[in-house]
Amino acid sequence: MMASNSDNHDISTRFESNNNYDRMKPKIFISPPTDDDVIINLDSCAESSKEFCIPVIDVGDIKEADDRQRKMIIDQVISACENFGFFQVVNHCVPKILMDEMLENIYMFNEQSAEGKSSYISKFDLYKAPTTNWRDTYYCYMAPTPPKTEEIPIILRDTMMEYSDFMEKLGLELFKLMSEGLGLTRNYLTDMECAKVWALICNYYPECPQPELAVGKSKHSDAYFLTILPQDNHISSLQVLHKNQWVDVPPLHGALIVNVGDILQASISLSGIIQIVSNDRLKSVEHMALANLEHPRASIGCFFYGSYLEQPTRKYGPIKELLTETDCPGYREMTSYEYIAHSYEIGLKGKYPLTKFKL
């Protein structure tokens, strides 16, 4: 496992098999036992998962649905966004075989020799977060200007380009459903350019010799508008903070997880950029990925950034059409660049980026 091109830590080094934290190496991966934000009780999480299930929404008929059927799907989406911040969609437009192939290619890319991947791997929070996450990451901006074919690793190239086309279509459809569910015009969120800039982020989580001391990805909320990702079918490691308790989200083959980002919450006003524009009506929920002893795991997230790169001066704030005399703006206006830069600045430290922008 590699941290970055310039990192000289031997990340493939195994932890020593004992409970002496002072002797564990490499220490950059060890979550201190006193850090309650990172160390969790796996038994209690497993127990709580039996009582919790994020909504699963069938969107297969959305194109041909009559007004009544479309409203039912929209109501399910908005209810999930308001109450959970996470939901899964099934019977969407993305072929299962393509999703499986994309995940398999992420395995192949990361399990090749270091020479074949060293120029592509990154870890943005390596020296910012208190604990280095047990993962390697490859990310690629797909819009508004797609990468040149030769810029994508050859193992991922063809599949990623095809997969990205489906992600864009699904993302645009989800923004339309959310717009209607909020009582706005169908294209309101897309006209706000919520889907103007987006990227695919491929994470690879190797087997961890002592997963109780490490974390795949620290607790965080997504500092964007919307995230879409398939879960690896081999193992469950995604956990969501629901009612102050970490709960497991078991993988459902063929389903895609959708979660609200910070900016959308604030615009509609319940979380992240989506939380910001929704003025917390839609929820951006904290989540994390666990390290695992027995199996590696892969994920590929599609992150919608808004006008992050194209219009760094465009400001987002609570949508005025959603405000009333008694429902005042909960956040100040900001650019997506300002918000995302602040999120990167604090790293994956378990801090909530939205706090800085609250009114």
Q: List the helices and strands in order.
A: HEHEHHEHHEEEEEEHHEEEEEH
Structural class, by secondary structure, is alpha+beta
What's the number of helices? 9
Low-confidence stretches: 1-24, 34-50
Strand order, biggest sheet?
1-2-9-6-12-4-3
From the N-terminal CA to the C-terminal CA, the straight-line distance is 42 Å
Assess the beta-strand content as a share of residues. 15-25%
Short description:
The protein has 359 residues and is α+β, with helices and mostly antiparallel strands. Helix content is 26%, strand content 19%. It has helices spanning 42-49, 67-83, 96-110, 114-117, 157-181, 188-191, 264-268, 272-276, 336-346, and strands at residues 56-58, 86-90, 136-143, 197-205, 217-220, 226-230, 238-242, 245-248, 256-260, 277-279, 287-289, 297-306, 315-316, 334-335.
Mind explaining what this structure looks like?
This protein starts with 41 loop residues before the first helix and ends in a 13-residue tail after the last helix. A hairpin with a 2-residue loop joins strand 7 (238-242) and strand 8. Helix 2 crosses helix 5 (157-181). It contains 9 helices and 14 strands. It has helices at 42-49, 67-83, 96-110, 114-117, 157-181, 188-191, 264-268, 272-276, 336-346; strands spanning 56-58, 86-90, 136-143, 197-205, 217-220, 226-230, 238-242, 245-248, 256-260, 277-279, 287-289, 297-306, 315-316, 334-335. Strands 1-2-9-6-12-4-3 form a 7-stranded mixed β-sheet. It has a 4-stranded antiparallel β-sheet with strand order 5-11-7-8. A two-stranded antiparallel ribbon has the order 13-14. Helix content is 26%, strand content 19%. Mean pLDDT is 78; it is low at 1-24 and 34-50. It has 359 residues and is an alpha+beta fold. One of its GO terms (molecular function) is metal ion binding. It holds the Pfam family DIOX_N. Belongs to the iron/ascorbate-dependent oxidoreductase family. Residues 196-307 form the Fe2OG dioxygenase domain. Keywords: Iron, Metal-binding, Oxidoreductase.
